[in-house]
Design a protein that fits this description.
By secondary structure, this protein is an alpha/beta fold. It has two domains: about 150 residues, no CATH class; about 60 residues, no CATH class. Helices cover about 25% and strands about 40% of the residues. It is built from five helices and 20 strands. It is elongated, with a radius of gyration of 22 Å.
Length: about 230
């Protein structure tokens, strides 16, 4: 995964969700859609001084996961014997070897600028991604695909800004909801399709602000909302 492929992925997801050509570059999309999401930060590998990406900012020294594994295999992390008579000497010895691993991944492919990725592929600038593919700017998604700015969500696809939700498809800005399709700005809802700005309702279609509309009126207003989202 590189910036070019990430941009192509962004274009595909935005086009699928909104039905319009994506007007945003990667940085603009991150600022617009992932402004409140915990994302990996750039740090520097203490062994090579090369940039690397980490989820946790609580450490002072980092080392990429690849370099960590090389040290484990070669046993170069082992230190020669030295006397540890005081607490100060123990802490000093610990400081010499206390590197936090960055860009951690397990059985994953095509991962960039991410940390904590498990059994996934095509992941860019994200944290804690599990059994997912084609993920951008997300934190804590499981069994998802084609997601931008997802948080703690599962079994979602082709969606942007899904939080604490599952079974969401073709939607934007969905919070604490289940079984949502082709909808925008949805919170605390269940089994909703083709709806916008709805809260605490279930088993509905063609609603805006919890108001039932005819399909033609709904689709006319939906276009206004999409243009507002992309232009604001």
């Amino acid at each position: 995964m590189n910036d070019k492929l990430a941009k192509e992925l962004l274009d595909k997801i935005v086009g699928q969700v909104f039905g319009y050509q994506n007007p945003l570059d990667l940085e603009q999309a991150m600022t617009k859609f992932a402004f409140d999401i915990r994302l990996p930060q750039q740090v520097f590998d203490s062994a090579t001084s090369q940039p690397t990406w980490a989820a946790s900012m609580g450490q002072q020294k980092y080392m990429s996961s690849d370099n960590v594994m090389q040290r484990v295999r070669s046993e170069t992390a082992m230190q020669p014997y030295r006397s540890l008579e005081s607490m100060e000497s123990i802490l000093a010895a610990w400081n010499d070897i206390n590197f936090a691993a960055s860009e951690r991944q397990i059985e994953s492919t095509n991962i960039a600028e991410s940390d904590g990725v498990y059994h996934s592929s095509n992941v860019y600038r994200s944290i804690d991604i599990r059994k997912s593919s084609n993920i951008l700017f997300s934190d804590g998604v499981d069994s998802c695909e084609y997601i931008v700015a997802g948080q703690t969500s599962k079994a979602c696809q082709y969606s942007i800004r899904v939080e604490d939700s599952k079974n969401v498809a073709g939607s934007f800005n969905v919070i604490w909801s289940n079984k949502i399709k082709n909808s925008f700005f949805i919170q605390d809802c269940f089994n909703l399709e083709d709806s916008i700005f709805c809260n605490q309702i279930a088993n509905k279609r063609f609603c805006i602000a919890n108001i039932q509309l005819e399909e033609d009126e709904y689709r006319r207003l939906k276009d206004k909302v999409i243009r507002w989202i992309l232009q604001s």
